[in-house]
Amino acid sequence: MLIASGERGTRMKSILKVTEAVVLSLFFLFSLTACGGGDGGDGVSPTPTPAFTTSDLSGTWYVHGVSSGGTNPGTIRGTVVANSSGQITGGSYIHSDGTVATLTGGALTINEAGVLSGNATTDIGINISVISGKMEASKNMLSFVDATDFGELDLVIAIKGN
After folding, report:
1. What SS3 state is found at 71?
2. Which run of H or E residues covers position 138?
3. Domain that holds residue 142
4. Which residues are CB-contacts of 29 (< 8 A; sequence separation ≥ 6)?
């Protein structure tokens, strides 16, 4: 069957939307279980989650994510450095399109249930806002969704380093 180029583009966009929906669903399920929000599939309730404080955000976080929508879909990886007050004091990331951004400011907050919020700014004029996020019980992993002022949505996993 021959497919006209316009129809091929439409089909490809549909396939990408379905793929994106599947990835989002899997990410959500993984985050829910890894962050103490389910029974892990074994029927055993998770142990009580410890209280979280802003100082739990202190340190270097290694971030890896998927960026969709906006002008530059792709992947991102880098670091975020925060102090015990949640202020972003450093870090940078590289996008799969080759763009490199240094974090120049921002702040993160976390409530006692481990729900993350905040924002960051970069040296190339990108402003990032955390839409929804959660720290897992060991306090060494975060998963979150953020949005940029360019219309991009990022699904991010952050692992705490030293």
Report:
1. coil
2. none
3. 54-160
4. none
pLDDT tens digits, the chain, 162 residues: what are they?
Answer: 444 545 555 555 555 454 555 455 555 545 544 444 445 555 565 666 679 999 999 999 999 999 998 788 999 999 999 999 999 999 999 999 999 999 999 999 999 999 999 999 999 999 999 999 999 999 999 999 999 998 899 999 999 997
User: Which residue bears the tokens 């960051």?
Assistant: 120
Q: Are 146 and 129 in contact (CB under 8 A)?
A: yes
Q: Is 103 among the domain residues?
A: yes
Domains contained in the chain, number: 1
What is the CB neighbour count within 10 angstroms for residue 16?
A: 12
pTM more than 0.90: no
Domain at 59, CATH number: 2.40.128.120
**Residue 8 located in a structural domain:** no
Q: Which of 158, 154, 156, 133 is nearest to 69 (CA)?
A: 154
Count the residues in the chain.
162
With CA atoms as reference, report the closest residue to 61 among 96, 27, 29, 93: 93
- Answer whether 35's CB lies under 8 Å from 52's CB: no
Which stretch of DSSP H or E encloses residue 113? none
Using an 8 Å Cβ cutoff, are 131 and 143 in contact?
no
